[in-house]
Specification:
The structure holds two protein chains of two kinds. Chain A is of the alpha+beta class. Chain A is built from four helices and three strands; from the N terminus they run H-E-H-H-E-E-H. Chain A has a three-stranded antiparallel beta sheet with strand order 1-3-2. In chain A, helix 1 crosses helix 3. The longest helix of chain A has 21 residues. Chain A starts with 10 loop residues before the first helix and ends with a helix. Chain B is mainly alpha-helical. In chain B, about 75% of the residues lie in helices and about 0% in strands. The radius of gyration of chain B is 24 Å and the shape is elongated. The chains are: A alpha+beta, B mainly alpha. Chains A and B meet through helix 1, strand 1, helix 2, helix 3 and strand 2 of A and helix 1, helix 2, strand 1 and helix 5 of B. Strand 1 of chain A pairs antiparallel with strand 1 of chain B.
């Protein structure tokens, strides 16, 4: 019986990781843009990103653009693999229910 | 939500970054904790589908709208010129040319705005690809402007001049559509580029008397067909996922 990764299987983290997977490997998205896309508060998104970061699924990078600090988030190769595994297991479980 | 978030001391100036603060301080910026949501399997699938759809809409821009915009621009611009050439539009050719120029400028501005909005806040490989692709358009049409000036001085006939300048312009558009399709893995865009090159050859073969009709009826139609194909493709993807 396939199992769903508990790090990913929470609505906010699943939405965040799905969006980051669409942004793609070797790409990063500004935290503020991601926050707007997901319609989450900065604190809530940060908490979930930290869990994903701890699992090695996302990478958070801080930088300066002009004189403005900015934070970028991107999915890691491990994150892409874990997400693909999650999608397959979800699909297998749903097929089992049908 | 303060600059203390950057504890390594590198950031002293500039605006505070709530994202960085929240992401690095380990504290909630809104005073709320993030609850662990429980989901059943169908809810999880819906979350994935909704997030994918939303991300694609935001990140890729509205390509269908861009094709529609250019199709309408060609109809207005080439339609005006063709109407004056055929004599059923009571207007000087120079006035029709001005209409084409204004329509092209408006379409260019709108296209830049659409793609700038979707690419803002991204960095990495796709940002580089998008940036260089945008630069290719800008540089291509800068060269096109210089070439148009030379053609304008060398060729006296208004319609032959139009044929040459527009053919070169659409050659550039066609080639960039083909390479854009390969860069962004968009087959429809590459096929539209190939179609535009076919239209350019047809226009050149048709000569100064009929090239405008070719651009109007075959070129604009190709753009509008591209808009329909892109719209249907987006809708099919959305519906396909919804029923997955």
């Amino acid at each position: 019986m396939p199992e769903l990764d508990p790090v990913i299987h929470a609505e906010s983290r699943l939405r965040a990781l799905t969006t980051l997977n669409e942004v793609g490997e070797n790409n990063q998205i500004a935290f503020t843009k991601l926050q707007k896309m997901l319609e989450m508060t900065a604190g809530n998104l940060s908490t979930h990103l930290r869990k994903l970061e701890t699992a090695g699924y996302v990478e958070v990078t801080k930088t300066i653009e002009g004189r403005t600090p900015a934070t970028y988030v991107g999915i890691t190769p491990e994150g892409r693999a874990a997400y693909a595994r999650y999608r397959k297991n979800l699909s297998d479980l749903l097929s089992g229910l049908a | 939500m303060s600059e203390k978030a950057f504890r390594n001391g590198q950031l002293e100036a500039g605006k505070p970054d709530p994202a960085g603060a929240a992401a690095t301080s380990g504290k909630e910026t809104d005073g709320h904790s993030a609850p662990e949501e429980t989901m059943d399997l169908h809810s999880a699938l819906r979350v994935v589908q909704d997030a994918e759809r939303s991300a694609r809409r935001t990140l890729s821009g509205n390509t269908s709208l861009v094709y529609l915009l250019w199709g309408v621009t060609w109809i207005i611009g080439y339609g005006s010129l063709w109407g004056t050439q055929q004599g059923w539009l009571p207007m000087e050719p120079s006035a029709a040319l001005a209409i084409l120029g204004i329509a092209l400028a408006a379409a260019t501005g709108s296209t830049i705005a659409i793609f700038f909005r979707s690419s803002r806040g991204l960095r990495g490989q796709s940002a580089f690809q998008g940036g260089m692709y945008g630069a290719a358009w800008a540089l291509g049409f800068t060269v096109m402007g210089a070439l148009s000036a030379v053609i304008g001085r060398a060729v006296d006939d208004f319609w032959l001049r139009g044929l040459l300048i527009n053919s070169v312009a659409i050659l550039i558009v066609g080639l960039l559509y083909i390479t854009g399709g390969t860069t962004f893995n968009d087959r429809a865009q590459s096929f539209l580029g190939i179609w535009l090159l076919v239209v350019t050859v047809a226009a050149l073969v048709s000569g100064p008397d009929f090239f405008l009709a070719v651009f109007l009826f075959l070129g604009a139609t190709g753009m509008l067909a591209g808009a329909v194909v892109e719209h249907l493709r987006t809708r099919r993807l959305r519906n396909g996922r919804a029923h997955a």
